[in-house]
Amino acid sequence: MNWLKYVIIFLFFVVFSLLQVSFFPYFSIFGATPNLVFALFFTLLFFEPQAVSPQSFFTIIAAGLLIDIFLPLYFGPATVTFLLIYLFCKLVMHIFAQGRESHLIFYYLCLFSVSFLGYNILLYATSLLFNFEFSAGVITAISLLYSLPFAALGFYAGRKIFFHGNDNQLKLL
Amino acid sequence: MNIYTRKPFGSAQGRQNLFWQKIVLLMAVLVVLIIFLNIFQKQVRNSFFYVSSPISTIFLQGGKGAAGFFSSFSSFPTLKKDNANLATENQRLLASLALLQEAIKGNQDLQSALIAVKDNVFTLSQARIMALDTQNDTLLIDKGSKNGISENMPVISQEKVLFGKISKAYPNFSEVVLISNKKSALAVKIQVTDPVQTPIYGAVKGSGNQAVYMDLVNSDAKIQPGDVLVTSAQDGIFPKDLLVGKVQSSSTNDTKAFQTAQIMPFFNPKNTDSVFIITNYLKK
To answer: Furthest-apart CA pair in chain B: how many Å?
Structure first.
């Protein structure tokens, strides 16, 4: 039933991406909407047991593909950005592996914020390179604040689903 | 000694080797996948939009309904003020209408005016909004190249309010870049009721987040708050006299040759279900 997990993950990504572009624009704050795809991507990578697994590979592709579809450009920028963010997060999680259990939500939200900003900076740099419109600046900060509650929800959902107090969780390998 | 002897996976070095092997493999597969997706990008995007459009429609309707419900609470305190403003504006519009009717009655060249109006009858294709990107000022609509839609076609509302133009046409869907997109610019003029008065020309540029401003206006021109902007057709993309927005305030600077003005755009994608694409406008 391993394939079912991938189907469910992909369906979640599809629904979240559609909510992001069809539902939340009506609740935008100064034009900013929450990045639900990024929140789901981050939750999955944070709670996955191994650094490089078929699931992580699938998560990067699913998240990247669904962001790329709505970008006015070729496929690839968001997927590559997600890959870089993934490697960065895994490195940080490896370095700060010790003593994070007591402040897990704080650690999670800090890492989410840094990754979110990194993601937007990378996509903004790509937009300059390929001459397409990608808003950054204050709108990114508002979008981050808007996304944080959803990330926190993702954290508690992820902890309930994936985290069992196992020592092997969150390790690089 | 065999230098290619594999390190056991149980050791730290073995684990590290495995990690980098996985990373290299992952990147290779990603590169192949990205190349494949780009070769068939129109088909991939079109298929995704086609399959997801029923869910998108549900979310759009849900979002609009929920937003309308909440905004009715938030706008309640300002209703009285808004009502008074609308009444004032209605009176001003009625006065303008009366002036226009007088001007038409007095126009000796009525025949040529009728021909001009006839020329402005467009062939329109109605499309539903499927997705709205408020951060990048783009829309996705459910008509594409199979419906005769092609790039740069103007997109308007039922009331002839300009939304933007088609930036990309897929077989069943199209992307619309709104006039508020930061890369958007179009030629406009201030609508004048007095035929003796010289029109004021300028350019409306997008500043993102559904906001626009007017630029390249002669510093001597007198812009008044409330002046209505329409397209001037000088750019060859948009037909003339499509409604763009209303002047809120203008600013002049002695060091600059041109003045700028803040514009309140008429388009509102959040309150619009359908848009119309002008399919027969020929660039002259």
So the answer is: 105
Q: What is the mean pLDDT of chain A?
A: 84
Contact A31 B182 (CB under 8 A): no
Q: Does the beta carbon of B37 lie under 8 angstroms from any beta carbon of chain A? A: yes
Domain assignment of residue B238, yes or no = yes
Domains of chain A (ranges; CATH) run 2-161 (1.10.1760)
- Mean pLDDT score, A149-159: 91
Q: Are A20 and A36 in contact (CB under 8 A)?
A: yes
On the question of pLDDT at B115 being above 70, the answer is no
- Is position B156 within any domain? yes
Of chain B, the percentage scoring pLDDT greater than 70 comes to 81
Distance CA A125, CA A141 (A): 17
Q: pTM for this structure? A: 0.76
Give residues 219 to 248 of B whose Cβ lies within 8 Å of A: none
Q: Is B34's pLDDT higher than 80?
A: yes
The nearest CA of chain B is from the CA of A61 a distance in Å of 8
Which of chain B's residues have a Cβ under 8 Å away from the Cβ of A120?
none
Q: Is some CB atom of chain A closer than 8 A to the CB atom of B143?
A: no
Tell me what the pLDDT averaged over chain B comes to: 80
Q: How crowded is the C-beta side of B25, counted as CA atoms within 13 Å?
A: 11
Task: Supply the pLDDT for residue A173.
Answer: 35
Q: Which residues of B touch A22 (CB under 8 A)?
A: 55-57, 59-60, 63, 130-132
Contacts of residue B44 in chain A, CB cutoff 8 Å? 69, 75
With 60 as the cut, is the pLDDT of residue A40 above it?
yes
Domain interval for residue B201: 124-284
- Domain assignment present for residue B269? The answer is yes
Exposed e or buried b for every residue in B50-71, given b needs 16+ CB within 10 A? eebbeebbebbeebbeebeeee
Q: Residue B197 belongs to a domain with what CATH number?
A: 2.40.10.350
Q: Which residue in A has a C-alpha nearest to residue B29's C-alpha?
A: A57
Nearest to A76 by CA among A90, A89, A61, A86: A61
| Domain-embedded: residue B5 | no
Its ipTM equals 0.81
Contact A31 B37 (CB under 8 A): no
Nearest by CB to A23, which of B45, B52, B59? B59
User: Could you tell me if A64 and A84 are in contact, meaning their C-beta atoms sit under 8 angstroms apart?
Assistant: no
At B94 the pLDDT is: 67
Task: Find, in chain A, the residue whose alpha carbon is nearest to that of B206.
Answer: A133
Across the interface, whether the CB atoms of B182 and A57 are under 8 A apart is answered no
**Cβ–Cβ < 8 Å for B250, B223:** yes
CB contact under 8 A, B135 and A173: no
Total domains in chain B come to: 1
